[in-house]
Amino acid sequence: MAGGKPTSVFALHIACLLCGATLCLPTTKILVIFITNFPDYDVDGGRDLDIFDINEEAGLNLVEGDIVLDEINAKGVNLKAFEQYRLKTCIEFKPWSGEDNYISIFKGGGCFSSVGNRRVGKQRLSIGTNCDRIATIEHEFLHALGFWHEQSRADRDDYVNIMWDRISEGKEHNFNTYDDTTSSSLGVPYDYGSMMHYSKNAFLNGTEPTIVTKIPAFSDVIGQRMEFSDSDLLKLHRLYNCTQGSTFLDSCDFERENICGMIQGEGKTADWVRIAKAEGGPNTDYSNMGKCTGSGYFMHFNTSAASNGDTALLEGRILYPKRGYQCLQFFYYNSAGPSDSLKIHVREYDTSNPNGKLRLIQTIDGSPQEQWQLHHVSLDVKKKFRVVFQGTKEGSGPLAGGLSLDDINLSETTCPEFIWRVKDFANVMDNTSPNTSIFSPSFTSKEGYTFQMELYPSGKTDYPGELSAYAHLVAREGDVGQKWPCPGNR
Ligand SMILES: *[C@@H]1O[C@H](CO)[C@@H](O)[C@H](O)[C@H]1NC(C)=O
Ligand SMILES: *[C@@H]1O[C@H](CO)[C@@H](O)[C@H](O)[C@H]1NC(C)=O
Ligand SMILES: *[C@@H]1O[C@H](CO)[C@@H](O)[C@H](O)[C@H]1NC(C)=O
Ligand SMILES: *[C@@H]1O[C@H](CO)[C@@H](O)[C@H](O)[C@H]1NC(C)=O
Ligand SMILES: *[C@@H]1O[C@H](CO)[C@@H](O)[C@H](O)[C@H]1NC(C)=O
Question: Where is the MATH domain (predicted)?
């Protein structure tokens, strides 16, 4: 059938490459609103030795450099880490403005933080050399927010064996446990996938692992430094009573009949309908890809049944923005005619427009594509509003087909600036030999730097199996004013 096998899509988000100059933290002092009163302990005596390679390399002299105001690289990554907190939790970071207790980020000899609010006024958190990775920064802030390492939990001996005789002499204290009153598990089961878990080789002397998971399959899972695990987030949510991310506004996968409070807009001449399969495509929704029978819905405007000029308006629920900029993401499947289009509007409400006023943000046209496509649309709304999806039938089209929408998300974040889409990524991953790379199209940053991403799906010769990505600056005729190297502009 027309839709065929769904193509997997890999979107590499390069939101903040070469854009250091646009990411200026007013000050490196960050206030975290603490709510829990933790005992006055340091994790690992004040140093997060989980990031032990880095800290070991940094040597034992804790060079407490002062606050580095122009460490722009770390600044950019810090901001990205804060944005992840905003996106996924209700924790909001803001510049310090005289509060009694605050966090001061500095470039010390390693990556480390105390656990919780120690109520010392200026509480220092070090993002040293090589710590400027988003997951490392998230990890350190999890300490500051009150979390110990996962393998310090009181019940850890039920899940891992600590191989004491393989641990470097003098490092045994890193494997202490803390009872449930100090390190509450918050009712969440032991999590091998936690960002706060040490890796199997932490503090080893020799080659054999120091942490052996009781379920062998987790041996290489522990120590992940990619992103928050679901349990990391659940614990944060429980400790800070979060119900949703502080930048989250709305999302809908259309699995429920109430379609998340969305409505058919006034003035429409055709309807968006909630279906699981459309003649002419798509054959399945995006969320489930047809894997679950009896579910897997999306919204569809049947353009083949519509007359020229017909419009279908799907309007989101009323929202109240806090930040003035938003990113709308959604999946779109276009099996309609070549002149049919999807328009994204916002309907904004104020005293002079109590019933709202439509403002066009973007028109998505172009020829039909036989697959679900991820779209990002940047919004800049500052007042009460709704998002409006307007499908328009404009000309002749196929006998069956239309416009389909699924998995809509709206957050108060900036959209990724560049997206590289790799078709059938699973196949690329499976069938690319090591030391073989693929290149993205070239992208040009706001500052005029053109670059390309290079990806080794099966790793380079020395790192087989380790997917790696490189950014290449590309010189183009007509380039003016670009410098390389360009410190502070990475
Ligand atoms: C490492 O193991 C060797 C051999 O058992 C031992 O002599 C040495 O003291 C150990 N080093 C550390 C730092 O634990
Ligand atoms: C979370 O809720 C509990 C119970 O209602 C309350 O004791 C605690 O102070 C709340 N924490 C925050 C950060 O609001
Ligand atoms: C769309 O309309 C056409 C023509 O009326 C019809 O054949 C087709 O089944 C409809 N598609 C859906 C998904 O209802
Ligand atoms: C929307 O958010 C959900 C839950 O976080 C996620 O599963 C889905 O893939 C997101 N959709 C888009 C278009 O990013
Ligand atoms: C791997 O690729 C690089 C870059 O193309 C090349 O210089 C190198 O010789 C290759 N190594 C092997 C073992 O083929």
Answer: 415-490
